[in-house]
Amino acid sequence: MIKRREIKNKLQGETLVRKSLEYGEHQDRTIRIAPNLNVVKIGGHGTVDFGSTVLLPPLLDEIRELKAEHDMLVVVGGGVRVRHVMDIGIDLGMPTGILAELSGEVSIQNAKMVAALLAEDGGICVEVDDIMDIPMLMKMGLLPIMAGTPPYSYFEEPSPPAPSSRSTGPIREHSSPQR
Question: 37-174, which class in CATH?
């Protein structure tokens, strides 16, 4: 048997999921890729589902005004269509990962609609894989818009009957404090 080659490092022999593992013991701060970012959440159920009555012009006009003064990321929830897909999926006995995949697609559809409505003002739909582009897009004067449902997809932890992740979860955890 060939001996495995080891490279000396602080994590040698460790598992990256061990709870007691200390990260960045010599690091004073966490690097923030967009320190002045303000996250604006447009709920699917309370906003997008009402269509032009709520979105046009009141809400989108307010976002246009705020864009001039603030770095913003707009995230959009799934709304009633997510609930519909979940009801059908649960009735059919779909596993949690499939339910998470289906519900995430609805949020993406809503994000694309909002991006289209704000395209004239620099609205651009950003996929989860392109999240590192957000600072560059903001410097270009664009308004990044993405789905608010976490991208767990098939890797969602089983939590019957529906995925535990919702579009409001990560936004609360990761949004920057008010300044």
Answer: alpha beta
- 169, pLDDT greater than 60: no
Place of tokens 């664009």: 142
Q: Can you spell out the DSSP letters for 59-102?
A: IHHHHHHHHTTSEEEEEE--THHHHHHHHHHHHTT--HHHHHHH
**Amino acid present at 107:** S
Q: Residue ranges per domain, the chain? A: 37-174
C-alpha triplet 119, 124, 126: angle, nearest 5°: 160
Comparison of pLDDT for 153 and 41, the residue scoring more: 41
Q: Please give the span between the terminal C-alpha atoms of the chain, in angstroms, as a whole number.
A: 59
pLDDT of residue 175: 40
Which residue, 125, 130, 135, 126, is CA-closest to 32?
135
Mean pLDDT value across residues 126-135? 93
Helical (H) or strand (E) element with 136: helix 134-139
Beta bridge partners of 146: 75
Identity of the residue numbered 79: G
Give every strand in the sheet of 71-76, ordered side by side: 37-42, 71-76, 143-147, 123-125
